[in-house]
Amino acid sequence: MAISGHLLFYSTYFSHSIRCVAFILLCVSSFVLSAQRLPKGESLTIEDGLSFRDVTAIAQDNQGLMWFGTRQGLNRYDGYRFTRFGNDRQADQFFPGENIQVEGIQFIYDNILYLISDHRLYSIQRNDFSQHDLTKELAIKGSVLQLKFSPDGSIWMVCEDATQQYLYHGDHLTALKEIAHVPRIRREFVTSLAIDTSGDVWWSTISQGLRQYNKQGDMLHEIKVDSFLWYGTMMYYTPVHVDSRNRIIIFPKSRYQIWWYHPEEKRYDVIADSLSTVASSFEEDKQHNLWFSSNVELLRWSPERVLTDYTSVLNETLQFGKIQDIYEDQTNMLWIATDNGLIKFPNQKQLFKSRFDVPGDAWGNAMRGIFEDKQGRIFAYCETGNPGLYYADTPNGPFYRSFIPIVGNPKLSPLDGTNHFIPDLDENVVWTLTDKLVKIDLDKKHVISMTDFSGTADTYWHNPFLRLKSKSFLLGSTLERMIIYNPETGERTKFLKETNTQFSSVHTECLLENSDGSVWVGTNNEGLYLISGQGNIIRHLTTGSTPALSNNHILVVHLGADSVLWIGTFGGGLNKFDLNNNSIQSFTIKDGLANENVVGILSDQIGNIWASTYNGLSCYRIKEGTFQNFFEDDGLSNNEFNYSSFFKDRNGVLWFGGMNGLQYFNPEDILEQRPNPPLTFTGYLKYNRQRDSLDSRVLGSQEIEPVIISPYDSYFQFTWTLPNYFKSDKNRYYVWLEGLEDDWSYIGNTPIIRYHKLPEGNFTLHIKGADSKGNWSKKELEVPIHVNPFFFKTWWFILGCIFLVGGLVFAFTRYRLQRLLEMERMRTRIAGDLHDEVGSMLSGLAMQAEILELDQHKSDTSRLHRISEISRLTLSKMRDVVWSIDSRRDQVKDLLDRMREHAEEMLTPKEMTFQFELGELPLEKKLQVDVRQHLFLFFKEAITNIVKHSNATIVTIRFGQFGDHFELSIEDNGTPTISSAASSGFGLQNLEMRAKKIGAIFQINRVSGFHVMLSMKSL
């Protein structure tokens, strides 16, 4: 049947004509609103880490990570690094497939990636990268060609064998059933599937053309909308797509066009014509724009049915031969897969309106002062490019030149070198300053007066000036030159009362009058001065003052709400000076400011602070305390703004001028905070020096198991990403190791943190991030970290050591106790044996000697008496030894009893009286064997000496603790006999020897008798 068609839009390419039109309009002294600016693209190629240049498919998982299919495997991209999945040893993760089919990657569920590789269907678990060959596991017959998912989650799939192509449908992969089949013709692997809003499928094949099926297998529509001859075979295949409005989009193979097919009428409309090749790729973005491509062209069809050519964006970014897929991610970044890598560019609504910009130029018309007159007309001065003073009756209306510089000699222009304009709404005039103070009539558009100030102002300096409340002007290019000028009287008065030779080199940059008449003066190298209306310096703020500025070069000051003075610096960022509590807070790039050169500051209706910089426009949200930044991709004509070029009109619209025209906007229209996807961990690595091993893991989730760190791990590190791929290298990251650090630390633009040799304990690593525009991620990352101590510091080791030492002490004590018990038993046994056996024998010997003594002759009597005496002496000594080693006689009281007993035995027969003087004695204390033995033998020797060698009648024995020492002394009242001279020395030596053996002091005293004494600290 015949198919009718008509052209909706014919695309023309007019990028060069824009400049021509602008030039013509300039010649007639007016400007029109500039055309929409196209974004700038960025490329990703094998030089950036892509595994293979020929990219066939693009998808994004629910964590925000990008997945790219290539002719040689699969890639995952996190904005900084590629992770390669392949079947060779160099791959980061193993994947058996190789050739990923065009548009062959799908995410059905949150964590499962489905892809068609080498015409087989695979699934990959995103968290642990486990894989399944579903063609084998599900016993799929033939080759898998396409896989699509309905909005209700059901699945459509096309397979083919040698003779047929099959259409399957099911609620899940294990429940697929055949819906239809068609003959397979010469060309292999050719088919197209599209799901409409009802969940029905549109299936295009070579042999049967375009068909529509429902889930039950009923064919609802059939048409051969296009045909072409392929080597003698008629082909009816046409790639088909369906958008969210249920429009059927056809890519005919016989014509270089794009069609909108109307199935009810069986006709089509031509959307695009005269493509360079047949159309190939399709994508619908979140703004419901439709994106089409041929092999080398990229077009956008808006909901208003306006076709825009984006081919130049691609050509300026990357050389390629064929576009193979189009994909928009969660943050409105558009990705283009080509046979030579990837192209990406932001696909966002243009937030700002631009005037005087020159499309395609980085620097076009450089702007300076902006103001409005009595009627609300906006005036702006263009410094270079097309210089002049322009005005517009309305912001969206055309701008007209109101003052034209002198042609041929711009140095004679009264506006040459001017920066600042001060309007007088009562007279509807404007004042400006070069080396002359110029007054311009805004109604008649001519110069009223020019007053020379060449000694006060410099033509090519910034020359700030101020209209005071008194209607006088404050001006001067340096502090020394500052004067107050009264335009009514012409009087000029020096402003500063203080004189300083350095003031001549301190140039002024900005002026601001307070309600009390004092003036803030910003300088180029000496910070900020506050000077009273009478010219006295009230205070001086510098980098060395308290509070301190971040930089001494001040470009702009602005008084905001709540008595806060905002100070823009050259190189030091933005300073917030709270006049109530006398504190300054500095904001730099690490705090979210777009750039640290701030040239303009304005407040919006709700108190937010807008700061124009050398690289972007920043909005400081007072309520949240965060920055939101804007760049060319948001609609700015240029990222670099100019000094003195900012203004807030009577309607609350903010104006900023830069190196390529003006930007104007209503803050309420663009201050929509766009939260980013959550941060995602991408990798973990640690090195163990004990095993000399590196543990590296590829991650891909927001939550990971607690990390256990060995004391032998020299370092460990985490990598993560903020899945916003617009200027990823400008994303900002902050970390806080709870348990070791007290607050967040800014780590820059690289999402990696490494820790070396953390102390033992439990920690929690917190990570947060914001994109280049200041939009924060939805939530922060957290991971518990436990650092194990060295084994000798663990509780089980310490407890084990305690048990071991306790066991050894117990064993040693028990062993010693057993030995002591054994010694006591042995002593008792020896004492008993000596007493019983040897004692009885000696007693018997003595008795026999006595009996023989009675019976023998007188000549033997003395000998037998001697034998008897020796036996009894031996028995006495043996009893002493037995007593000394008997463990049953170890106490002090036993020693005392034995000493009394011995004194009784030795002294009483000699008619000597004795007495004991006892000190303090621990009677129950057990004495060591040697101590007890030496004390007793010392006592016995002394008593024996008295008995044998003294004629004493009284013996005094002192025994015990007397004061601070222990004493054992024996004293008699006699004198030594003559026979004792030869033997007394040996006895005294024995006494001294026994005293030394127990650590005692031996003393002798022969005054009034004989006195021997043993003393020591304690018993």
Automatic annotation (TrEMBL):
GO molecular function, one term: protein dimerization activity
Domain Signal transduction histidine kinase subgroup 3 dimerisation and phosphoacceptor, residue spans: 827-885
Domain of life: Bacteria
Alphabetized UniProt keyword annotations: Membrane, Phosphoprotein, Transmembrane, Transmembrane helix
Membrane-spanning segments: 795-817
Protein name: Signal transduction histidine kinase subgroup 3 dimerisation and phosphoacceptor domain-containing protein
GO cellular component terms listed in the entry, alphabetical order: membrane
Domain Two component regulator three Y, residue spans: 724-787
